[in-house]
Amino acid sequence: MPNFDYLLFDADGTLLDFEAAERQAFFATAVVLGVDPTEENLKLYSSINGALWKQIELGEVTNAEMQRLRFTRFLAAVGSDADGIAMNAAYMVNLGKGSQLLPGAMDTVRAVAAGRTMAIITNGLPVTQRPRYEGSGLREVFGDNLFISGELGVQKPEKRYFDLVCEKLGIADRRRVLVIGDSLSSDILGGNNAEIPTCWVNTKWWTERGDAQAKARPDYTIRSITELPALLES
């Protein structure tokens, strides 16, 4: 195991509990907009939203298009005449309140921070990701090193996203950097594209990959973020 001087952590699904934040935000928004706050409707919305984020990764839609389409499609599917754009705006505010951390996340980043530059790399929008970051307590470890695709104007897995992060952190030797994330198609493929070593946090114990993930090649794989300190010491 090389000595990594820079650790670049994905946020959602790696350190932040996005499923908990999404659930909280969806139910709070649905109640106000008169949509049934049911598990079935949450599952439907989540599938629509997830598919659009995959299209963003592939460069097929923009962030602005995603925000316009996700609740418009959801409301059409459930037969509601509510305003999809208004629902998206309310949801964004509520999502910004969801700063729950995954179990062991804070202890892990504290354990590996000594002598290293730490940064968070996340696809998303500043209106949600910055409040969630501040509320999570992660600033204690990461300081101002929060890189949001919506601010950089490019997203993972594009090489340019990682180029910009390296420029801002003053990274010259990418062999001294480790990308850590749960998404093969975003974090791991992005690291591959930028020729940066990667660690896949395979929290779902996947044994098979879909076509969109087939090109991703993690250098290391762990089952939980809490396994990272032992990996780095090995």
Shape: globular
CATH homology group of the largest domain: HAD superfamily/HAD-like
Query: Can you give the mean pLDDT?
Result: 93
Order of helices and strands: EHHHHHEHHEHHEHEEH
User: How large a portion of the residues is in β-strands, by DSSP E?
Assistant: 5-15%
How far is the N terminus from the C terminus? 6 Å
- Tally of helical runs: 11
Counted beta strands: 6
Helix content: 40-55%
CATH architecture of the largest domain: 3-Layer(aba) Sandwich
State the CATH topology of the largest domain: Rossmann fold
Low-confidence stretches: none
What does this structure look like?
The protein is of the alpha/beta class and 234 residues long. The protein has 2 domains: 144 residues, HAD superfamily/HAD-like (Rossmann fold), CATH 3.40.50.1000; 77 residues, Putative phosphatase, domain 2 (DNA polymerase, domain 1, Orthogonal Bundle). 50% of the residues lie in helices and 11% in strands. Helix 2 packs antiparallel against helix 3.
